[in-house]
Design a protein that fits this description.
Strand 2 and strand 3 form a beta hairpin. This protein is mainly α. Helix 1 crosses helix 2. It is built from 4 helices and 3 strands; from the N terminus they run βααββαα.
């Protein structure tokens, strides 16, 4: 199966959960990069997937950092041994 790099405006709209018209508006406003091919637009898949990934808040990042530190503190020696396996 081929790895599809570009999406149509219909596919982008479905992934973003917005209408096709809203996709066109975002393209026209410069909020969404797209290449015009004939009468259609092709949108890089990475342009859409980057918008779907939620950005972590500072609180979330701090919680993750604390969890990692606790794990290393409690299981550091075991993790080192696993790293040499």
């Amino acid at each position: 199966m081929a790895n599809k790099q570009y999406l149509s405006t219909i596919e982008a709209a479905k992934l973003l959960g917005i209408s096709r018209i809203a996709v066109f508006k975002k393209i026209k406003a410069g909020d969404l990069k797209a290449e015009k091919i004939g009468r259609n637009y092709a949108i890089l898949k990475s342009e859409i997937t980057s918008r779907l990934q939620p950005e972590l808040s500072k609180t979330d990042k701090d919680e993750i950092d604390q969890a990692v530190k606790k794990t290393v503190r409690e299981y550091g020696e075991t993790l080192k041994l696993l790293g040499h396996a």
